[in-house]
Amino acid sequence: MTEHQNSILALGAQVPPRPATVFDVASGLDNKKIVDCMLKRGFCILRGLFTDDLLDKISDRTDIYLSAPSIAGAPGYWKVDHPKKLVNPFVLGGPALDLLLDERVIDIIEQSMASECILAETILKVDKASSYSYFPLHSDFAVGWAKSDKVPRKLNADDLRQIVGIGGAVYFHDTSDGAFCYCDATHQFMSPHGQQLTLYSSQEQQAILSRKVRCDGRKGDLVLFDDRGFHGPDQPSRADRTVILLDYFRVETIGRLQVSPMPIWSSDIGKLSDKQLRVAGVGADFMVDPSEYAHTRFRRNSFYKLIAWAVTKSYLFDHFKNLIKALLGRI
């Protein structure tokens, strides 16, 4: 049995984990306690950072995007598989930036990483109730990880001995069924066989799953988690779930690279602080070209060509009407 197997099985043999640790802003934010929890357990919940009013303002701006798919430049959602809808929260502007670039969260992230961070990726996601699992537990990093050739070098074991990325999930409503799940302290063994749970032996999988904690939360809660640990949504699920997912990368390890660039409204730029602009990625490079990013996956769908054909022909009636008018005018 390898050293990694021993560590995974030993972790699974520990007393079952307790519920997620909750830090309430009403009691005052103790960054040291939050960082200590992140280093020990790999995750926690921050409560009271985001008010119902802020979430409602963002939801109001989201409604138009969630009502129909984005077609021919019309505002709408992206589809990459059947059970979910995706929206880039930056396109919502205004109040969404107050959530995405909250300086209290940035301070906690950077203290946990002992480095500057960059918001590498974010998405507003609606997961529909489903009788099957379509987004299984996984870790985001393992030895050899590199999102693209733009990453200076592939991650090695030394890189993974410290936090490389911290993810976040903001609940738009009270959430239990379908909530975010984290396998307590699994960040400590740094995904020795890879990012997918299926790459591990049945004993190891059982040990990892025995550490799973469902992060039941309230509207406005922010779940923070170390990307090295195993995590994912509670599936199958009988309830829909709306969240904003965020992912911050450690600049000292990965560099000032985002997964793909963020669209910021010109009317919002002036209200952002230097720290917020830095974390938003102003002046940074990106790993994946926007034309190749996740939202373009629909191009591989069998309906794409049909819809694309319909869009190109959508103004034929107006076109022919104007041709006829022009012809009659000449006559």
Structure explained in plain terms:
- Helices cover 30% and strands 18% of the residues.
- It is of the alpha+beta class and 331 residues long.
- It has 2 domains: 3-289, Jelly Rolls (Sandwich), CATH 2.60.120.620; 301-331, no CATH class.
- The longest helix is centred in the first third of the chain and has 15 residues, at 52-66.
- The radius of gyration is 22 Å and the shape is globular.
- The termini are far apart.
Please sum up the structure shown.
The chain has helices at 3-12, 31-40, 52-66, 95-100, 103-113, 202-209, 251-254, 266-269, 274-280, 304-312, 316-330, and strands at residues 22-24, 43-47, 84-87, 117-127, 165-171, 180-183, 212-214, 222-226, 231-233, 241-250, 257-258, 285-286.
